[in-house]
Amino acid sequence: MAGRASLIAIALILAALFGVAFANSSSPGDFGITLLSGLFQGMLLFLVASGLSIVFGLMDVLNLAQGSYFMVGAYVAYDAQHAGGVIDLTSVLPDPNLRFIGAVLAAIAVGALLGYLLERGLLRPLYSRPIFQLVLTFGVSLVALELVKFIWTTTPYSWTELFGVRESFFELFGQRFSTYRLFVVGMGIALIVAIGLLLQRSRIGIIIRAGVEDREMVQALGINVRAVFTLVFTLGCAIAAFGGAVAAPFLGASTTLGNIFLLQAIAVVVLGGMGSYSGTAVGSVLVGLAIAVAQDTAIGTAFAALPSITPMLLLVLVLLVRPSGLFGKS
Amino acid sequence: MQSLTPSSRGGWLRGYWLPALLLVFLILFPFIVGALTESSPFGVARGDRMVMRGESVRWQSVLIEVYILAILAMSYNLLFGFTGVISFGHALFFGTAGYVLGLLLEYTALETGVALALGVLAAIAVCGALGLLIGFVTLRLKGVYFAIFTLAVAEMFFIFFGRWQLTRAEDGFAITDLPVWLDPSQSRISFYYVALALAVLTFLFIRRLVNSPTGAVFKAIRENEDRAQSMGYNTLNYKLLSITIAGMLAGVAGILQVILNKKVGPELLGVSYTVDPLLMTIIGGIGTFSGPVIGASGLHFLDVFLRDAELVIAGITIDIANIWALLLGVIFILVVIVFPFGIIGTWQRRRATRKQRAVTTGHPPSA
Q: Which of A123, B116, B240, B289 could form a disulfide with B135 if both were Cys (CB 3.0 to 4.6 A apart)?
């Protein structure tokens, strides 16, 4: 568990963020918008970072292609939702709401399949050479980017088809809040709890946690660690693709998505402490909020790049105080 | 174990005849191409100015690009191949040096020559300081942390310079003011020799450094850092030294790139200037002296020759230029999996085993 210093650090960061957000907002509604958008970004980050974190903890592989799965998820979901793409679901599922569920499922399936292929086909031979795994996943991210450009061209897509949840708003304090954002935040929290429970309570979760502690011991107890590796890696990629799919209605699909989210997710994982699940969850929320606050602050000023730099600034600050992250083992 | 070790007896030239021959060829290269294609290596005179036109001049710039990439790859290899520190942010040094030089040349009222001299010195100094700073903050972290930290910092710089209005954001700015003797659009051949000289000096410097006692510690860190530490070496200091030197050398490459293109822009900080040296080092051979040079020249020549080529698969014509990045990525993955020691590395290993076999069986080596 986190020590007192970490809790103080988290409280300080939160206090600073809320302070800045409050100073910037003119009304409670304004503040609420910043908060919701921060949580929304945080949940998207969590979807990329959770796989990264668990895979690193268990297998010592930092999957630099994780962002690509997010990007591919966004493209697949966009493609499936809109008419005239590679996957055309418009005739099968005419209702846009249902089709969106189909699109998300398609993205998850593609992510899981690609993740499985990467682990079984390319990563397996390299477990004895860890630095080459890093280099390999880096190479895979380049190939993924080029393939996406090849299939969907480099022009970014923005989500045009409006459907129930995406369109609707609710009003609070005189401000209009997007129901879809709230929906994603709710789903993200549900997923955080679900994965947490899976890790804490289920048999496979116990094996995964034991594997994070001591991989060889688990193997010596007669458990097929390799199969667990494959499962965890596939799951991580599927979750990242899911993240891309639910982000697409807001962010659209573009070739820069992968790198942006990879870097931010890495900041989250390192900031939370590598291999620590609760660290990743807390880190996602912190970084998401920080980005939202920075976006508010940067509007109309010369610091247009501030939101993109914020995760790294936060990371550098935390690492200077706690070199192994908030929840990391020192 | 190096490919260039001179034999114990005979003149100094004996072990070095191949590189010496290559160097002579490269020095004469503009004139050889000039004679073969009947073009002047100095360009075409128009009035009192020289216009850079003709085959010889065109090939000079191809080779200059090779030299720049080779310097970049060699500096990367010092860090990755000899010290065992993996960085994903080498473009940071390359681009920062370019920006520092560009800012001094274009944004100060200094005289051209003074601005150039100051710019070069400042660029290299800033790269060294940057390497020292990044190393100081992160090198005590484990390898993976360091790699992603460098990636993050490089990306931060990329975003920052891509949006900085002073340097014209993503358009970048042109270098208009260069001394005539260095200006590649007025006297390319002299810039060719500057780049060649710097590439050769970098090669010799890295060889000298790695073969020194300091270099021995670098390699000890690469093999087993804990062991090097328990032998009493302050490994952090040595890693700091390695990243500082590598950063400065990458800065030299960035300076040359800016002078060659006469343009400074955020693409200098882009991920491709990290990927290229990484790829060139791995393909040529990690931790070998000539590997990065061979990787750099091989990949760049492939790029130049294949850029206009077309591939016909099942009736569909594909421009190689469009899928070049994809091809590179696939080569990247294949090399990492099946060819992890690169061209030079594999060749050296094979030679070493052949020698060993010859020693054990008593037969002289066949080659």
A: B240
Low-confidence ranges of chain A (pLDDT < 70): 1-2, 162-168, 174-175, 300-305, 329-330
* pLDDT at residue B196 tops 90: yes
Which sequence spans correspond to the domains of chain A? 4-10+34-192+225-321
Express each pLDDT in B125-172 by its tens digit.
Answer: 999 999 998 888 776 666 667 777 788 788 888 888 887 777 777 788
- Check A142 against B147: CB less than 8 A apart: no
Asked if B139 reaches chain A (Cβ–Cβ under 8 Å), the answer is: no
Residue of B nearest to A136 (CA): B333
Phi/psi class of residue A153: alpha, beta or left (left: φ > 0; alpha: ψ in -120 to 50)? left
Beta-strand runs (E) in B83-142: none
Q: Exposed, middle or buried by CB within 10 Å (0-12, 13-18, 19+), for B364?
A: exposed
Whole-angstrom Cα distance, residue A112 to residue B111?
60
Q: What is the pLDDT of residue B209?
A: 95
B34 in a structural domain: no
Query: How many domains does one find in chain B?
Result: 1
CB–CB of A56 and B153 under 8 A? Answer: no
User: Where is mean pLDDT largest: A79-83, B192-196, B299-303?
Assistant: B192-196
Contact in structure between B195 and B202 (CB atoms under 8 Å): no
Does residue B309 belong to any structural domain of this protein?
Answer: no
Does the distance separating the beta carbons of B140 and A323 come in below 8 Å?
yes
Which residue segment(s) compose the domain that B241 sits in? 53-284
Two tokens, residue A76: 């697949």
B250 belongs to a structural domain:
yes
Q: From CA A131, how far away is CA A128, in angstroms rounded?
A: 9
Residue B255 has pLDDT above 90, yes or no: yes
CB-side neighbour CA atoms (13 Å) of B250: 34
Contact status, residue A253 vs residue A145, Cβ threshold 8 Å: no
* B326 and A CB contact within 8 Å: yes
Q: How close B249 comes to chain A (CA, Å)?
A: 22
Domain boundaries A4-10+34-192+225-321, corresponding CATH code: 1.10.3470
Mean pLDDT within B109-127? 90
Do the beta carbons of residue A51 and residue A63 sit within 8 Å? yes
pLDDT digits (tens, 9 = 90+) for B320-331: 777 777 887 888
Q: Are B342 and B285 in contact (CB under 8 A)?
A: yes
CB contact under 8 A, A274 and B333: no
Give the chain A residue whose CA is nearest to the CA of B156.
A309
Residue among B84, B145, B165 minimizing CB distance to A270: B145
**DSSP structure class, residue A253:** B
Please state, in angstroms and as integers, the Cα–Cα distance from residue A281 to each residue in A13, A245, B144, B354, following that order. 15, 20, 21, 55
Q: What is the reported pLDDT for B141?
A: 67
Kindly state whether residue B6 falls inside one of the protein's structural domains. no
